[in-house]
Design brief:
The complex is a heterodimer of chains A (209) and B (335).
Chain A (H helix, E strand, L loop, with lengths): L1 H18 L3 H11 L7 H30 L8 H23 L4 H10 L1 H18 L3 H7 L1 H7 L2 H13 L7 H34 L1
Helix pairs in contact in A: 2-3, 3-4, 3-10, 4-6, 5-6, 6-9, 7-8, 9-10
Chain B lengths: L16 H14 L3 H6 L2 E3 L16 H8 L2 E3 L11 H4 L14 H5 L9 E6 L5 E4 H5 L5 E8 L4 E11 H6 L9 E6 L21 E5 H5 L4 E6 L2 E2 L9 E3 L12 E7 L6 H5 L23 E4 L9 E3 L7 H4 L13
Classes of the chains: A mainly alpha (209), B alpha+beta (335).
Chain lengths: 209, 335
């Protein structure tokens, strides 16, 4: 009985976590539908989908530190889902840019991609995210074995590309970039800390032996 | 107990909207604008219709009077389709009130724009601090429909209300040493939250400048209104510059100082990133901003089904009028 109850709660939790990241997209779609996105709805959609691609990538990166620092284990179940959502929003972000801003004018698209450094690093980040999404299934994980871990370490350079992507867009106010940067600093810094700690432990053990 | 006080003004004494509007037409006919109208270069300013819930800014009484007497300068106006009032007053770059496009409309509503003083100084015969009313009153206000091209590659078409900057400057007798004009926006962090931001790389107050021949050009305008009414605070009330052949950031808002000088003045964006924003900042599709192309622009409002992308024209389509000012200059160098 109690087991069935906890199983039901588990399903509920899964559905809540699954539906929550769709809320920004729902909000955007609704407001676009009622023409409530202002004079430049294209810009608004591109901006918001980009912001959520980053938010979800940061959330994905937060799950391991949450476990190590705060002993919080349950979010691990959702790491893959959050990563896939980040890829999803990044893809919508690029498609919205190409469709609503450039109107699929290939000449403009090529020009923007080749000449604007912040677009190049953004596009590169998305490109690198794709193999991580493709290999996120359990089957792929098994097939790739130890290489899977190596491949998925790509998420660290991707997060740095994303930082460059938003820093190069600063016009005058860097408040938001500072917040994203500090959080990423903590997320990557904690990994560095645990890595060094493990290394010294191994070395000490080696010396003792 | 509830005691109902009689209204101090009887409803029968209130002028109805239609009578009020008719009076506007009547006054326009009476004033000396008929001569201008007869030349064919000017027309009556139309009565704009707005969606009901949109705020309209009327300005002080003297401003309303001046606006009632105004005419449209058709010779200087474009035939391009107007950007609706709603977008003009709700999609703004005015970093003193926040960096988001909707921030100024949100944060500027209590901005005090009356009374307003402007200091005119430097190389002029009659320097001083003047009430805005005294600066504007001697001039006939004109409506002019200009294209506005933002450096961010979007554009609008706006019916401004104002006067030629040159006409105003002449009243203060510029000396022969006046080679440039420097403008300064109000610095008031209490009223302008953007000036309190700790993460801004811009220095306040905002400053801008023009060469004297640019300032004296008939297209260069000091605007006090938009869409047949006073200027909304988020658009730079009560007094802003409009230079239609330059990127929008040159058109400085909420001006409190105008200084004529013999040296090229500093300009805010140029101080922050000189390789990105030049002193001249003439609209030029051939010179890209380092982070985006300037070859085309999106004419707002754009919709999702149609980005409304149009090619950007040299000098924002005003080349016939202003290209002369820059003859012999390398516009790639003097961007």
């Amino acid at each position: 009985m109690a087991k069935a109850k906890s199983k039901a709660l588990g399903y509920l939790e899964w559905w809540v976590v699954f539906l929550l990241p769709l809320a920004p997209l729902g909000w955007l779609t609704y407001n676009a539908w009622i023409f409530n996105l202002g004079a430049d709805p294209a810009q608004e959609i591109v901006l918001e989908t980009g912001v959520w691609a980053i938010n979800l990538l940061w959330i994905t990166l937060a799950i391991t530190p949450l476990r190590r620092v705060f002993k919080l284990n349950w979010p691990l179940r959702y790491r893959r889902m959050m990563g896939l959502y980040s890829l999803f929003y990044a893809a919508v972000h690029l498609l919205a840019f190409a469709t609503f801003i450039l109107g699929w004018r290939w000449d403009l698209l090529l020009k923007e991609l080749s000449e604007r450094p912040y677009i190049i690093v953004g596009a590169l980040g998305l490109l690198l995210l794709i193999p991580l999404g493709v290999t996120s299934t359990r089957g792929m994980q098994r097939r790739l074995g130890r290489n899977w871990l190596k491949l998925h370490k790509l998420v660290y350079p991707i997060s740095l590309l994303v930082m460059v992507h938003i820093i190069w867009q600063i016009r005058s106010d860097f408040g938001e970039q500072l917040v994203y940067g500090l959080i990423l600093g903590f997320l990557l810094g904690s990994r560095m800390y645990f890595y060094l700690q493990r290394k010294t432990r191994v070395m000490r053990a080696a010396r003792a032996a | 107990m509830l005691i109902k006080k009689p209204d101090s003004i009887k409803s029968s004494e209130i002028t109805s909207e239609s009578v009020y509007l008719n009076r506007r037409h009547f006054m326009r006919g009476l004033l000396g604008t008929t001569a201008l109208l007869a030349t064919g270069s000017a027309n009556a300013v139309p009565e704009y219709e707005f969606e009901k819930d949109l705020p309209i800014y009327r300005g002080p009484d003297w401003m309303q009077q001046k606006i009632r007497e105004s005419v449209r300068n058709t010779a200087l106006s474009t035939d391009d389709k107007l950007t609706p009032y709603f977008h003009v007053m709700s999609y703004n770059n005015f970093y003193e009130f926040g960096t988001g496009k909707k921030d100024p409309a949100r944060h500027a509503q209590n901005f005090q724009t009356d009374p307003w003083k402007v200091e005119i100084s430097g190389e002029v015969g009659k320097p001083g601090v003047y009430n805005l009313e005294d600066l504007i009153k001697p001039h006939l206000l004109e409506e002019r429909i200009y294209r506005l091209r933002c450096v961010e590659a979007w554009s609008m078409v706006v019916p401004w209300m104002g006067l030629s900057l040159g006409d105003l400057l002449k009243k203060f007798d510029p000396t022969s040493k006046a080679k440039y004009v420097e403008f300064t926006t109000l610095h008031d962090p209490d009223q302008m939250p953007g000036q309190r931001s700790r993460f801004s790389t811009l220095e306040w107050p905002y400053v801008e400048g023009l060469r004297i021949d640019e300032a004296m050009h008939p297209l260069t305008m000091l605007a006090v209104g938009v869409y047949g009414n006073a200027m909304p605070p988020q658009n730079g009330a009560p007094l802003r510059l409009v230079v239609p052949w330059k990127y929008g950031f040159k058109s400085i808002k909420s001006i409190v100082k105008i200084r004529l000088t013999d040296k090229m003045p500093n300009t805010t964006w140029n101080l922050m990133a000189p390789q990105e924003y030049g002193f001249y900042s003439n609209v030029n599709p051939a010179v890209d901003h380092p982070r985006w192309s300037q070859a085309s622009e999106r004419r707002l409002p754009s919709s999702l089904f149609n980005p409304n992308r149009v090619d950007t024209l040299p000098f924002n389509g005003y080349a016939d009028e202003v290209a002369e000012l820059y003859r012999g200059m390398d516009l790639k160098k003097w961007f």
